[in-house]
């Protein structure tokens, strides 16, 4: 399965932290990671193999949306920063719309991504209270 990973600047550390919690589980499965450019660099530095697209503002979200439209993606994890402005907001909306059009699982925060990854890796054992 190919999984797309995208994080706005204020959420890149969250993305790396989130992924590191599933490193062993992901390594045991046939999973290919793709990411927008800068998110991909952060992920790569934390020890994952990832195929990097363009940076989001330069069209990376649009490239990932194209993959989603072509049914190449099993899920999309997109940690958006709701407290910041983004010059490419139309691309962001387009990506989320395409996921809905094609019924592709889309997590936009760590809590939902955690549930999706636990389902994927069969490690779900109940929802934890904070
Ligand atoms: O802007 C983004 C998502 O909209 C992410 O792009 P980068 O991973 O290149 O920062």
Automatic annotation (TrEMBL):
Substrate binds at residues 8, 12, 36-39, 55-56, 88. It catalyses: dihydroxyacetone phosphate = methylglyoxal + phosphate. Pfam families: MGS. The keyword Hydrolase does not apply. Residues 1-130 form the MGS-like domain. Its EC number is 4.2.3.3. One of its GO terms (molecular function) is methylglyoxal synthase activity. SUPFAM superfamilies: Methylglyoxal synthase-like. Signal peptide: none annotated. It comes from the Bacteria. The active site is at 61 (proton donor/acceptor). The keyword Nucleotide-binding does not apply. Catalyzes the formation of methylglyoxal from dihydroxyacetone phosphate. Belongs to the methylglyoxal synthase family. This is Methylglyoxal synthase. It comes from Algoriphagus sediminis.
